[in-house]
Design brief:
Chains A, B: Belongs to the transketolase family. The structure is a homodimer. Chain A is α/β, with parallel strands linked by helices. The longest helix of chain A is centred in the first third of the chain and has 25 residues, at about 40-60.
């Protein structure tokens, strides 16, 4: 970040004077800053911090907005981290073994963003991703970043355990996560913190920018817990930094200690002052507004800078950071030299590793999908296992987890190994190690999905995280599912127990309205396969979707296996399951209730001489992507009425159907079959409803044009 | 619960023999159990626990399902609580001053539910609410119950601070919350725990059924934290019970100590063994499956019960619990005697209290809503304040909170007092006391809404909780919003910064797909008012909705005040804003973009001679409830094309419109106006799109029947 600002300040052509000359005298790069005395270094640091604080103040003032307070408070942390500790290469930002940095507190990220808003496009146009160089994930809503960081650290551990050899540590990076007071209040962060402590992720460091300020005022307005003790109780080491605004040396020492931690993740509690040096220092108002010209001029006077000058960066300051790119390139070069040697010595692992670095799967992965399935009725959650377990077993890109529903979600493959700290002893006897790829996330749905975003963000498609839980609990995880989709991360969510067919657990577990959310969510495929064949199609589609997240939504209860289903059909979103000449109506069947549509068609034919064609419609978004011609040929809505059968809120189906047999109230606690019956999803009853509807619209032309719930 | 089972065992006509006779000898009720020696009591308890455990085992076995393990493990806690400590009245279940009990761990609630599933309807038919007597809230998904309990305890504190007098403690109840291992992993519970510690809710006790088992196996598979230390760090007192399966005395002592706690909430860590006495004791499989007949027979032999007999309850056992109803009625009678005296001495407070007990608002509350508003452009989040602040100020039913967005959501009324522990000193100087009705929830959106469910569940409409945050963050809170709607609780969510108009914070904060969730969610009103007048309508509608939750979704940015808007129109969901004779098209305007529709209509008229009528459509669910006639007269979709303008995913609008100017991708980080422009929401551009669409469908009859994104 500091580096970016140096570049920009020049590019912007603002005045540049050398206040630092005196401080830097005799300390030119060629003489080596390393030779500086403690006193000299201290003076350099003082100058550097002042420069940054004024740059931040000037920047926010320029467009009268932004979040200056936090950034100013964190300046010393930034210098310590980016100058002295972080291993990264500005000129090779995607260097595979780089340290990962996650900015979980929103402030500075916001600032970077608004920095590049339309008002300042001239300052740094184009390439909105490059500008976030060094920021690994979009954390956005508070708390997500902590969990993302846990995922990044898990990714490192897993790669190390699988690929590192005593003579080759090809993966050795550390994950740093900066959090604010707000992050540490969010449930998703608290879940992830507890889990990281359990996993003993010693390659993870949280740096807590402890300024005790949130939007509403001081933190003690809402939170008076003893955070250090809480973190220790969760299995973290804690280091305190009392003077976080100035004590760069202390911060560097703490960061270095954290990198060398052997047993636990580290929590560095850095006391800072928001908006330090400004008139609003330590106050909530420093959080989200520019300081004003007068206040900034005062700061500059106090710092012995020229109050008339803006965006001032001294030559000495520039040189102080000049070693960073070269140092980074050295790391890159060393790694690039080492890796071919590794490939030579460990050709199989090397090939696999390279393939993963390149985000590819083995070419033959499709061969692992069963060509056909047993005829007997099968729950589609079981079909998911049949399809995916062999893939998960063989292909190490997949990191598969569950939020405490292993017995229900069928994601365990034969001889799976758990991802656990190798020393863990459990009461139930199940153990694992870091090379394991099955993750017991605990009852932490939200953290599971946010951690999976971190896994996926480690490097494109190097990991393809799979999460699993009941579909309803993906409402708990929704903010993280959204962040995955928004960041174009390939994550597959195996959601079981969908629709009211899940039964006894009742309305709190029956997802009536949840599909409406995920069908509307951009860059997310919500797929409801109707039997094993379609479940194969769903997984193939999800694995092919390199930049999109997918929810595969399956049934708890057994489903009949249908001869008409086609895995290729799933990829098109909808396809004709049963064609009839001169049909009177199109029935849409979906997922667990797909067979209902076939049965209703049969009943209509037999009892009412109504000819119904049936289409299977597992995924609206995939269907939307098809050609207009395909869509019209499949639906035929412009010719005959279309009726959709799905025990969900119908929102969105109005586009494809004229009428719906659906559910617009909360469910009911009954066994699955009884629940279907209770809500009128019986074949005879449904057929009668369709028959009556078709009769009615013969004479009621207005009704024919309206969407009707039957 | 035990009591219910006693009743049922008789009603069911199962065999009843008196194994307890020997144990109970000389200990009949008339002699008073209180006179029993420690040794005698211990023998009684032993008998009672065995009886319960076998009842539970028999019950689950009867229909080969349920969750016997947890219930059996918790039997001693149940006896301690319901026989010795809880103040409740089985015959007057809604006794206002009763202790509140929340069962947060799902196990036993599930069991009660399945107990009454269709398979056992004969055992206890009808009245599905009465059977849950003594259970205050539907906790459903894990973790919710902890937050609900915090809300219940806050309700007590607030009523006490407002209404209790030194000589009249008309509210004195305690809240007990039973949690399992799983609950304590969920983020929403962790948020609520931290907040309850901050508030020093000494009237709240969590009883932790610490059996160290979840679905996947032992808890140490996923969680190895030091929970006691963590709870202490969060501001809780901790009491350990080592032998939670048998030590009724110890549990009673702990519960009584917790009730008398003066400074902090209490966490009682009770070590139990899941499925105690069965072959699967201590194992995860004890959690969710019946034990099997052979295992139960063995248990009975071990307990010296007849293995051939089922549902056995001794007369002594029955008598042991027989004092409970009478004791309860004494409490009720005492309170009912005391309250009129209170009313006499404190007539104003008494009248207000009675009104709240009856769930009513002062009759004149509508007079508090401004009759009109200033003409100047106003953000609808500001309108929300104009409408609701005076109501919140005067009417004590409202408990208003925010998840750290006080400066943004405008929910603070003049002279508001914060709900805080009276001794709290904060760095920022803001303090409060328990009579305060403004709650700084911290950055804990999910807990805020789940706690609000608890507040609302205290007694019907005695509290009407109001929550506030950015609309996007209601995705964090969605599971709790859902539980509120599902339980028919009146809760009002003031969601600001809706649509892309919120601007700079970018796609992570711009709610593209979230409205689709809430428009589909049963028993929830998602209302987007278009200006101050409609905002008044939204609040009036929400306050009138006694058994329904509402989200009032408002803008960050200023909106023009429209002369055509009508507050009464909001209650109908949609209404005609601008009528035109022989219109060519109906434009739907919504919320922050309502004026766009009017502007587009004007532009169409001026530049294209197209006659557009405009309807305002703030709430789909309210509109659905209108008569068919009203709906057709308003929409006229059967006569002319309808185009909706809203920068959201259009899912659901297909029912009302033929085309949409909408947004099906994630947003973009730009100032609000620039974001509208970036996505084509400029008046001229939108008018052109509508004009072109109207031209196209003149010749393309298929397109006319399809839903089109413009």
């Amino acid at each position: 970040m500091p580096y970016v600002e140096l570049e920009n300040s020049q590019a912007n052509g603002h005045g540049q004077i050398d206040y630092g000359e005196n401080v830097m005298k005799g300390l030119r790069k060629e003489e080596g800053f390393k030779k500086s005395t403690t006193q000299q270094l201290s003076e350099i640091h003082d100058h550097v911090l002042k420069t940054f604080r004024l740059l931040i103040a000037d920047l926010c003032q320029q467009f009268n907005g932004g979040h200056p307070g936090g950034a100013i408070g964190m300046a010393a942390i930034g210098v310590a981290l980016w100058k002295y500790v972080m291993r990264y290469a500005p000129h090779t930002p995607d260097y595979f073994n780089r340290d990962r940095f996650v900015l979980s507190n929103a402030m500075t990220l916001d600032q970077l963003k608004s920095y590049h808003s339309d008002r300042v496009d001239a300052l740094c146009p184009g390439h909105p991703e490059i500008e976030h160089e060094g920021i690994e994930v979009t954390t956005g809503p508070l708390g997500q970043g902590v969990a993302n960081a846990v995922g990044l650290a898990m990714a490192t551990k897993n790669l190390q355990a699988i690929y590192n050899k005593p003579d080759f540590d090809i993966v050795s990076n550390h994950t740093w996560c900066m959090v604010g007071d707000a992050c540490l209040q969010e449930g998703v962060a608290l879940e992830a913190i507890s889990f990281a402590g359990h996993l003993k992720l010693n390659n993870l460091t949280i740096i807590y920018d402890n300024n005790q300020i949130t939007c509403d005022g001081s933190v003690d307005l809402t939170n008076t817990e003893d955070v250090n003790t809480k973190m220790r109780a969760c299995g973290w080491d804690v280091i305190d930094i009392e003077d976080g605004c100035f004590d760069i040396d202390g911060i560097v020492k703490a960061l270095k200690k954290a990198r060398k931690a052997t047993e636990k993740p580290t929590f560095i509690n850095v006391k800072t002052i928001i908006g330090l040096g400004s008139a609003v220092a330590g106050d909530a108002v420093a959080h989200g507004a520019a300081f004003g010209a007068a206040d900034i001029a005062n700061m500059k006077k106090m710092y012995k800078f020229d109050p008339e000058q803006h965006f001032v960066v001294s030559r000495g300051m520039r040189e102080f950071f000049e070693d960073i790119p070269a140092r980074g390139q050295e790391w890159v070069a060393a790694w690039e030299k080492k890796f071919p040697l590794y490939e030579e010595k460990y050709p199989e692992l090397g090939a696999e590793f390279r393939q993963r670095v390149e985000g590819r799967l083995p070419d033959n992965w499709r061969d692992l999908v069963p060509a056909q399935f047993p005829d007997k009725p099968t729950a589609s959650r079981a079909s998911s296992g049949l399809v995916f377990n062999p893939i998960a077993k063989d292909i190490k890109n997949f990191m598969v987890g569950t939020a405490d529903l292993s017995p229900s979600v069928n994601m365990i493959w034969k001889e799976k190994v758990d991802f656990q700290h190798p020393d863990l002893k459990t009461t139930c006897g199940i153990t694992g190690n870091y090379s394991g790829r099955y993750v017991h996330y605990g009852v932490r749905e939200h953290a599971m999905c946010a951690i999976s975003n971190g896994l996926a963000a480690f490097a494109p498609n190097t990991f393809i995280p799979v999460t699993s839980s009941f579909f309803m609990f993906y409402l708990y995880a929704a903010p993280a599912v959204r962040m995955g989709a928004l960041q174009h991360l390939q994550i597959i969510h195996a959601a079981t127990h969908d629709s009211i067919g899940m039964g006894e657990d009742g309305p709190t577990h029956q997802p009536i309205e949840l599909a409406a959310l995920y069908r509307a969510m951009p860059n997310l495929l919500y797929i409801r396969p109707g039997d094993s064949e379609e479940t194969a199609g769903a997984w193939i589609t999800a694995i092919d979707a390199k930049k999109t997240s997918t929810i595969i939504s399956t049934s708890r209860q057994v489903l009949p296996q249908l001869s008409q289903t086609k895995r290729e059909g799933v990829a098109r979103g909808a396809y004709v399951l049963e064609e009839v000449k001169d049909a009177d109506v199109t029935l849409i069947g979906v997922g667990a209730e797909l067979s209902f549509a076939l049965d209703v068609a049969k009943d209509l034919r037999q009892t009412k001489s109504v000819k119904a064609r049936v289409i299977s419609f597992p995924c609206q978004r995939l269907f939307e992507a098809q050609s207009l011609e395909y869509k019209r040929d499949t639906l035929r809505k412009h010719r005959i009425p279309v009726v959709v059968i799905e025990p969900y809120a119908p929102n969105g189906w109005e586009r494809y159907a004229n009428a719906a047999i659906c559910l617009t109230r909360f469910g009911h606690s009954l066994p699955g079959k009884a629940a279907y019956k209770f809500f009128g999803f019986e074949v005879g009853k449904m057929a009668s409803k369709v028959g009556e509807y078709l009769e009615k619209i013969k004479t009621d032309s207005i009704l024919r044009e309206e969407f009707v719930e039957l």
